[in-house]
Amino acid sequence: GDSVTQTEGQVALSEEDFLTIHCNYSASGYPALFWYVQYPGEGPQFLFRASRDKEKGSSRGFEATYDKGTTSFHLRKASVQESDSAVYYCALGGANTGKLTFGDGTVLTVKP
Amino acid sequence: EAAVTQSPRSKVAVTGGKVTLSCHQTNNHDYMYWYRQDTGHGLRLIHYSYVADSTEKGDIPDGYKASRPSQENFSLILELASLSQTAVYFCASRTGRTEVFFGKGTRLTVV
Fold first, then answer.
1. Cis omega before residue A31 (within 30°)?
2. pLDDT class for A95, splitting at 50, 70, 90?
């Protein structure tokens, strides 16, 4: 079945550091890829999506590029802030049903 | 802003008892979903529905039932709660090719 692997379980950075969270997927067909962010006590919130090879999704300074060749969708941000501290989930989904398959999440902690 | 409301927000249930988690959306969305989140893990799909009076099994349906009596409401039912069902449960909704909107979650503890 479909699966998503996030390499980093936890990432600790200082403000203005560069962020990379690695996401690789395994799926049949051509899934849409997503990044979600979850703050304490809240449900996951949509960050952005990409639906085709080489498409870049972006929001709030975060970005990721759909790479079908390496089956990856790595999250990057040039300069993180303390307010970016949260759990980040990579997910893949079917275009019709909207069913999402999530990775295990990456806890990002940014120190001031 | 899309709204998905879950109730209760937390619940303690006894092993073997019946538990019903409720979800209400005001978005006029067709699709509704129930996900389970375990500590340190991502969300996994339990059941979903794309129309009232119809439900579909997700990836981990065993031990759970779902009910969609109207477009706005979607319930998750644990007929015989077990310790292994202790988790946080999220309801979500979507229409067409929009993003999926999640509720704030229900923390269920089975003792």
1. no
2. low
Q: Cβ–Cβ of B45/A100 closer than 8 Å?
A: yes
Q: Write down the pLDDT at residue A38.
A: 96
Chain B residue nearest residue A50, CA to CA: B99
Cβ-defined contact of A104 to B94 (cutoff 8 Å): no
pLDDT of amino acid B31:
93
pLDDT band at A75 (very low <50, low <70, confident <90, very high): very high
In angstroms, the separation between the Cα of residue B36 and the nearest Cα of chain A is 11
More reliable by pLDDT, B49 or A98: B49
Contact assessment for residue B32 and residue B92, using Cβ atoms and an 8 Å cutoff:
yes
Dihedrals phi, psi of B79, to nearest 5 degrees: -70, -40
How much is the pLDDT for B69?
97
pLDDT at A83 over 80: yes
Distance of residue B2 Cα from the nearest chain A Cα, in angstroms: 11
C-alpha A27/C-alpha A36 separation (Å) is: 19
B102 near A CB under 8 A = yes
Q: By the 8 A CB rule, do A93 and A34 touch?
A: yes
